[in-house]
Amino acid sequence: MVETAYLPGQQSRARWMRMDTARILKRFFFCERALIIAQSGWLAGIADLDVKTILPRLSWQDAMTANALRDRVFELRYPSRLIERGDDAPVIEVFEQAIHAPSAEALILSLARVFKPALLEAYADYLEYGDELADGPTLRFLGLAVREKTEQIAELTAFADRLLAAAPEKLVEAEAWTHALAAALEAAGGLTLEPPHPAETPVELPGRRPFELAHKPARDPQFHLCRFYWPDVVDKDFPYGDGLMLQLRSAVSHINEAWAVETGGAILHAFADDLDWEFIYDAARWTYDESRHTRMGLDRLRAWGFEPAEIPLGTYIYDSAYGQDPIIRLGMLFYFETKNIGKKNQRAAAFAAYGDAVSQHDMEFDWADETIHAHYGSYWHGKLYEKLPGRVPELESLRARCDELVTAMVATATEADRADIRRVAEAMIEKARRIGLNETNADS
Q1: Are residue 156 and residue 230 in the same domain, yes or no?
Q2: In what helix (H) or strand (E) does residue 224 lie, and over which residues does it extend?
Q3: What are the b/e assignments for 201-224, b being 16+ CB within 10 Å?
Q4: Whole-angstrom Cα distance, residue 181 to residue 439?
């Protein structure tokens, strides 16, 4: 006898089957990927030091979310490891327009008003309808992503307000760009839980400029802008120093890792398609780490009483790669990581002897990060060497070329450069001595 009646199974939690879920999460992954590349590529073109050094944290958060999305797609589609944009191309292509913003102000405004809110809303909808029993792992990491996107929108909104207040002439263009992107996203069906569709009529994006990496890095005018950020870079008779001078020199070196933030973003953008996701994931972390090191230096200098106008912010290492293949920028980052890593523990020990716990603390964590970065540099150079053998030199040749370029840049220093940075450094040293004496007298 054949049964003709069945137990009921129409429950709300069965809304999406396994492959339906994988398709939605794949759509989210590609949208996150597009924003990570845009945010990273623009770092060298952003002057405001807070924006330049906080945006990498957002990119790293996005990369963590994207990586979890990608892994979950692979789990749901096992054994397939294929992940393609497919029918999601219309909405992904709108996200990929973010990088072509007409200005840094327009980029930040579009992130705050269009792209991050779209992801936030989509993730919140997914959490509302998702099934914890079947898809608990996804609900956990998207719950974190919702909290992060909410915080990101607040930060980006404040940044957009600040940047546009400083450059009001860019407001109309930035607003037009943002409105057009919102219209383009809507025309593709928005970022929702349903498949997007091609726009019936293409939406014009006013002010769109094909992205180009900033070959001269933008710098925050609050600081003392220069090419060479300490006299010993261009004057071998000027001591690196110990004691108070080492404390000061180390903090100035840390804030000047702004060049490494910009370089990390530049290589992420440059090799995103050649090396794909695993490289993007590592490079986002690498860039985030460099941004934390920059802020370490800024935090220490501020705590000691230095104002931005007293602090030198240089460009010479980033400038050294001007006009070179992007592999040189990867080489620069790797070269300076491995060149200086051996000194970190010695300096941390010195700071401990001075009773300078915060400098010791920062140097120890810097050392830990750079051991990771040394691996990144070696591993990804190897992958590029395999993939682009005619373009990418062997590692020792790459290091030698980087050293040659930096040496040539230092050789361009003028007497005016030397006099300027010596004046700034001596003023900082004199102020630091006064601060140290005041602390000593206060403790007496």
Answers
A1: no
A2: strand 224-225
A3: eebebebeeebebbeebbbbeebb
A4: 54
The domain that contains 54 carries what CATH number?
1.20.1260.10
Q: Map tokens 């290589």 to a residue.
A: 267
* Distance of alpha carbon 390 from alpha carbon 327, whole angstroms: 12
Cβ count within 10 A of residue 278 = 13
Q: Which residue has the tokens 């998207």?
A: 142
8 A C-beta contact, residue 83 and residue 29: yes
Reduced to 3 DSSP states, what percent helix, strand and coil does the chain have, rounded to the nearest 5?
A: 75, 0, 25
Q: For residues 126 and 418, what is the distance between their CA atoms, to the nearest angstrom?
A: 58
Joined together, the tokens standing for residue 90 give: 């219309």
Considering the domain boundaries, does residue 4 fall inside one? no
Same domain, 119 and 27: yes
Confidence at residue 418, expressed as pLDDT on a 0 to 100 scale: 97
Q: What is the pLDDT of residues 27-46, one digit of tens each?
A: 999 999 999 999 999 999 99
**pTM of structure:** 0.95
CB 50 within 8 A of CB 219: no
Q: Does residue 200 sit within a domain?
A: no
Tell me which residue range forms the domain holding 50.
Answer: 15-187
Tell me how far apart the alpha carbons of residues 411 and 322 are, in angstroms, rounded to a whole number: 15
Q: Counting beta carbons within 10 angstroms of the beta carbon of residue 368, is it exposed (0 to 12), middle (13 to 18) or buried (19 or more)?
A: exposed
Domain assignment present for 212: no
Number of independent structural domains in the chain: 2
143 with 251, same domain?
no
Supply angle C-alpha 268, 313, 234, rounded to 5. Answer: 105
Predicted confidence (pLDDT) per residue in 240-268, tens digit: 889 999 999 999 999 999 999 999 999 99
Separation of alpha carbons 279 and 285, rounded Å: 10
